[in-house]
Design goal:
One of its GO terms (biological process) is methylation. One of its GO terms (molecular function) is nucleic acid binding. It is a single chain. By secondary structure, the chain is an alpha/beta fold. The protein folds into six domains: 131 residues, no CATH class; 143 residues; 173 residues; 118 residues, no CATH class; 191 residues, no CATH class; 86 residues, no CATH class. It contains 32 helices and 25 strands. Strands 8-7-6-9-10-12-11-13-14 form a nine-stranded mixed β-sheet, with helices on both faces. The protein has a five-stranded mixed β-sheet with strand order 1-2-3-4-5. The chain has a four-stranded antiparallel β-sheet with strand order 15-23-19-21. Strand 3 and strand 4 form a beta hairpin. It is globular and about 95 Å long.
Length: 917
């Protein structure tokens, strides 16, 4: 099936809605969404076997779509009649479209969603109908929170309509953001009892404003003034009677003026449509993610929203505090003695009320909002159990009851956020979640405590967490937990100012310049633990901080300051439900200075799998059950391998010594030049069997260098090198006919430096002296099939995945970190011969698939069964070289390799490990 071309659909919709509309509109619409020509023709000719029309001019397809033109009628009334038509029920139609060619209304029955737009605005709403293509589905059918996602959709369409009308520059969006945050609050308030009347704002908007939206700015100006003015303030007397009925909410939230955009008929309809949503079903947790989705149309049109990250939030707060609290409450509820149970419940509630949580990179507040909600739900369960033991069921003094039984407050939560607007949204989200929880407590206690005016503070500071003293925001002595998802920022991609922040936070750490940006939060949290050693912390991070060159400088520093890892999620893919979402490879690390007795690793069979929980004795910096003190440090030479590994040859020639396919025939035509034309292989050429060539003139006589074709290339290479800012490169201009490196052994094993993370094995190979290897690969000169067998084994692969870094998500093989540190087994000649035979078998099987690239052979979805079997046999044999007892998991393999490494670097005998259980 061809890929969906959304741009083509948008362009086509603009064309069919810009001219004079006619009866062919619907057929053109169907064509744009990929309906077969024969189907469209049958509709055009009213084929009764295909068209399920109720009357002339109707067009419909069973289970798919029904269209009617509204001639002189209100499109919404026509749509309503179709939805209630009993004769259409049996056709199970999903989409209904009605238009008078000025307005267009549509309804998606499957996900209970609708649009009401100007006919000319259809192109901006193309995504509403994308499920018709068969290549796309709205996630409402399978998402856990359909109301949340529908709210994202509605707010997204409203945002698009406002942006189109107002033409904001990116640096002018603050006012629009403030307006949308207030609007979001009002939607929620009018549907959840914050405002005294249901739908109060939407009703007022419909009754007090013109249909063209021209007076909406004045309406919102007046409404926001009321919401920000105390009840007793005389200024409220000057407001219209309908507006005076709105309560005072919070002066700070509604103090800013000049934030209201222009409106028109279309935007007004979007505003009213938003008010028709059931906001009581929408979680305040979604608000921050909603604004991310609203601000990024591409993310929004994937329709997965970011709400499902709540699942990943629990990977942080669950093992950090929530799982333990849940278990503690269950134990208390199991106490048989009523008086003792009540005593323990009250102590448990006091414990909940004493918890203080900080997020030093809180963004829109999701981690804090979810944590607050979960602690309140625990408190609610405890309070209910307390009341069940209390003979006094009266609720006459609600305030006293609320003070006695609702003690966990948003005052106990603290956040730091660099950007103003996310911090703003975090405060609003906390306020709204507080209201939700007050309603839940009120339902239990017999009445609802008033939510207005908003008084409790959501302690969100708009500061740079890396240049601020955390004790000025967090109550360090009382703080219980630090949580969050700090910015990732790879060491090579962060800005100069961010790099300066990293170096300032790690002033005495060697190789600090190689640390990712997120590591700064680890160090700052550790420093705060010096003030209060009881603080425990857990962060989401890219998995690079537990791999490669970052491990020793980061964790060496943290461990030296007394930090211990208490739990960790090994590499998983942090992703949402959006289709095609690439996700990021992450870990969760829970750490503190107070070491827990019970430690847990959450292990993943693959990054997309669900975790398996394993209790372990210790967790090291690589997130393995191994000693904290063991770090794999770069080695300039192999500590165990028989043969050295070298980097391939860097041309450093500006491309002038490379012969591209278009020029190959010209060079090959010069017969005496042929001995100096060699194949050129980098990782791509090796994996995809692509042909490239180069001039290898290292031993070429003068007469070859003077051939005009060659001399021109040499001169251009000299010029490129002389123009370089690098002194080393300029020095190479003295030998412009040669690559920078001159490694060309008789034969060698080739190891690509970068390989897809999907592959179980990095595809390696052999080349001879007729081929030059580029610096995109490593080489083991004169490597044997035995060497190849060890390097292609699962033992070596799990070592590589753990100690090497990644380029984006791909494996990045490192000679100094991986090859030179890998603990090779001690073998007899017989064992060596067995490995060689198994390695040759793999090479022969590869050759039995001529024309198939290594990339395809090692694609996990395409790997031939005989090749997979050959690798399995090699894996088993190699593992037998390490110990008698088979390994049950990669964690066991790594634990064994780490112990061997430790003995190798300390020059201890490791033979006893062969017999380990």
């Amino acid at each position: 099936m061809a890929a969906l071309n959304q741009a083509k659909i948008i362009k086509g919709l603009r064309e069919i809605t810009s001219g004079e509309p006619d009866r062919t509109f619907f057929f053109k619409f169907l064509k744009l969404y990929g309906f077969p020509r024969t189907t469209i023709q049958k509709l055009e000719h009213n084929d009764p076997d295909r068209n399920i029309a109720l009357r002339e001019g109707d067009y419909g397809l069973t289970k798919q779509i029904f269209f009617r033109e509204a001639k002189g009628q209100d499109p919404n009334e026509v749509l309503e009649s179709l939805l209630n038509a009993p004769e259409l029920e049996r056709y199970k139609i999903r989409f209904f479209i009605v238009t008078d060619f000025e307005r267009l209304v549509a309804y998606d029955r499957r996900v209970d969603d609708s649009i009401d737009i100007d006919f000319s605005d259809l192109a901006n709403n193309f995504d509403f109908f994308l499920p018709l293509t068969g290549q796309y589905e709205k996630p409402l059918a399978y998402a856990a929170h359909p109301a949340d996602i529908k709210a994202c959709e509605k707010m997204g369409r409203l945002y698009d309509a406002i942006r189109e009308l107002n033409h904001y520059e990116n640096d002018e969006l603050h006012g629009l953001n403030v307006f949308l945050a207030r609007l979001l609050f009002c939607y929620f308030a009018e549907d959840t009892g914050i405002f005294p009347k249901p739908g109060q704002m939407t009703v007022a908007l419909e009754s007090m404003t013109a249909k063209d939206g021209s007076d909406l700015p004045q309406f919102f100006e007046t409404l926001f003034a009321a919401l920000g003015t105390p009840e007793q303030d005389r200024r409220r007397l000057n407001l219209p009677a309908t507006i005076r009925e709105f309560p005072f909410v919070n002066e700070e939230f509604f103090s800013e003026r000049g934030c209201i955009p222009k409106f028109n008929t279309n935007v007004r309809r979007h505003l009213i449509a938003g008010g028709k949503l059931s906001w009581r079903e929408v979680s305040p947790v979604i608000f921050g993610s909603m604004f991310q989705s609203v601000m990024d149309p591409e993310l929004r049109r994937e329709l997965g929203a970011h709400y499902t990250s709540e699942k990943n939030i629990f990977k942080v707060i669950g093992p950090l505090f929530l799982d333990g609290l849940n278990a503690e409450l269950e134990n208390i509820l199991g106490i048989k003695t009523k008086s003792l149970r009540k005593k323990r419940l009250k102590e448990f509630q006091e414990k909940l009320a004493s918890i203080r949580i900080g997020d030093p990179a809180c963004g829109s507040g999701n981690f804090l909002v979810v944590s607050y909600r979960e602690l309140k739900m625990l408190e609610l369960r405890a309070v209910k159990a307390i009341l069940d033991t209390d003979p006094d069921r009266g609720r006459s003094l609600l305030t006293d009851w609320m003070n006695q039984y609702s003690k966990v407050s948003i005052d106990h939560f603290y956040g730091m956020e660099l950007e103003e607007f996310p911090a703003y949204i975090a405060r609003v989200s906390m306020w709204l979640m507080e209201h939700v929880m007050k309603q839940k407590f009120g339902a239990l206690l017999g009445a609802v405590s008033p939510s207005l005016p908003l008084e409790a503070k959501a302690n969100i500071a708009c500061v740079n967490a890396l240049t601020s003293d955390w004790t000025t925001v967090f109550p360090a002595k009382q703080l219980s937990y630090i949580i969050g998802n700090p910015p990732f920022g790879g060491a090579l991609r962060i800005s100069k100012s961010q790099k300066a922040e990293v170096l300032a936070i790690f002033p005495d750490v060697k190789d600090a310049g190689k640390l990712d940006y997120v590591t700064c939060w680890y160090q700052k949290a550790t420093q705060l633990m010096s003030v209060n050693p009881r603080i425990e912390c857990a962060f989401v991070s890219t998995n690079s901080i537990c791999q490669g060159e970052q491990v020793a400088p980061l964790w060496g520093k943290l461990f030296s300051e007394g930090v211990h890892i208490n739990f960790a999620h090994q590499t998983f893919q942090w992703r949402n439900e959006a289709r095609g979402n690439a996700g990021v490879y992450c870990v969760v690390v829970g750490f503190s200075k107070k070491e827990r007795e019970r430690k847990f690793l959450y292990q993943y069979e693959n990054p997309q799998a669900e975790p398996v929980t394993v209790q372990v004795n210790q967790i090291n910096a690589y997130l393995l059950d191994a000693k904290e003190s063991v770090f794999i440090r770069k080695a300039s030479s192999a500590i165990s391998a028989d043969k050295p590994m070298f980097l391939g040859n860097m041309p450093n020639d500006g491309g002038n010594l490379i012969i591209e396919p278009a020029d190959y025939a010209t060079f090959w035509a010069v017969e005496k030049l042929r001995p100096y034309i060699k194949k050129l292989i980098g990782s791509r050429e090796l994996l995809h069997s692509e042909e490239r060539f180069c001039l290898w003139l290292h031993s070429a006589p003068e007469e070859i260098l003077k051939i005009q074709l060659v001399a021109e290339r040499i001169e251009r290479c000299r010029s490129v090198r002389l123009a370089s800012r690098d002194p080393g490169c300029r020095k190479l201009a003295q030998r412009p006919h040669e690559f920078r490196d001159l490694n060309n052994p008789e034969s060698c094993i080739v190891v690509p430096r970068v390989s897809s993370e999907r592959r179980e094995y990095i595809p390696m190979g052999f080349i001879g002296s007729d081929t030059i290897l580029t610096d995109l690969c490593h080489m083991v000169p004169n490597g044997t099939p035995y060497d190849f067998g060890i390097l292609e084994s699962r033992m070596h692969m799990v070592w590589m995945r753990t100690v090497c870094g990644r380029l984006e998500s791909r494996y990045r093989y490192s000679r100094n970190l991986c090859y030179n540190t890998f603990p090779w087994p001690q073998v007899s000649e017989k064992q060596r011969e067995q490995i060689e035979n198994l390695a040759r078998n793999i090479l022969m099987i590869r050759e039995s698939y001529p024309g198939t690239t290594l990339a395809d052979l090692y694609d996990p979805d395409k790997m031939p069964s005989d090749l997979r079997k050959a690798h399995y046999e090699l894996d088993v044999a190699v593992e037998r070289l390490y110990r008698r007892k088979p390994f049950q998991s990669d964690e066991e393999r790594l634990s064994h390799l780490f112990r061997r490494y430790e003995k190798l670097v300390s020059h201890e005998d490791d033979s006893s490990l062969f017999n380990e259980e």
